[in-house]
Amino acid sequence: MAATKTSTSSQSNPFIKQLASSNRTTRDRALSSLRIYLRRPTPFTTLDLLKLWKGLFYCMFMSDKPRNQQALARDLASLVDELKSVEGKIAFIEAFWKTMAREWNAIDSLRLDKYLYLIRCFVGKGFEVCKGAKWEEEVIKQYEEVLRGEGGPLSPRDAKVPGGLRLHVLDVWVDELEKVDNKKEADVGWVMWVVRQLAKESLVKSVRERAKEAIDDERLEKGKAWKEVQEEAEEEDDEDEEGDFGGFED
To answer: What subcellular compartments does it reside in (predicted)?
Structure first.
């Protein structure tokens, strides 16, 4: 868990009702205040961030009209930038993913599109955090631990993570990487490691196949670690062809 240690969770409580208000003015004011609040030097706990994301989830839930919803999604992703440290930024993103995994099945079809766009924004923001750290291997690994961990959208076998959430993250993964890494500075061998592991370990066939499609995307720039990832993939594919258990169809 990429969470921080110091707790002042009681201070975050007033935001929750305001962020989930049916009144847009109230929600906008709460979001503006939250932006300032996140700049504090004192670290947030896991519980702090999960409480905040409960309110932020319903802030999006109450938003109407596509243009407003997309603007709000970008605003929510930009909250990451207010956190002082890389660890704080990753912890905030982790709380987002845990919230989405928990609430996914409660999202009705009429509201799904705005949450899909929100997810896209956060996939991109995760890459931006890595880019801000100059694509350091340790930062990428720290972030990928969140993605693979409990409640993470690329956790291969966490039954609490809905398959639809995994599939959508995989759908937009290379799109957002291409946008953020426009100068081709990232070593995609490391960036794609978490996807490779999902292709290897998921028990769901559709998830494995979608992960393999992302790995094979021709837009990916082959870097120094790419050869290692591809060789491992080829070895595992050969093993699968020998009759190992292929997982569930869906």
So the answer is: Nucleus
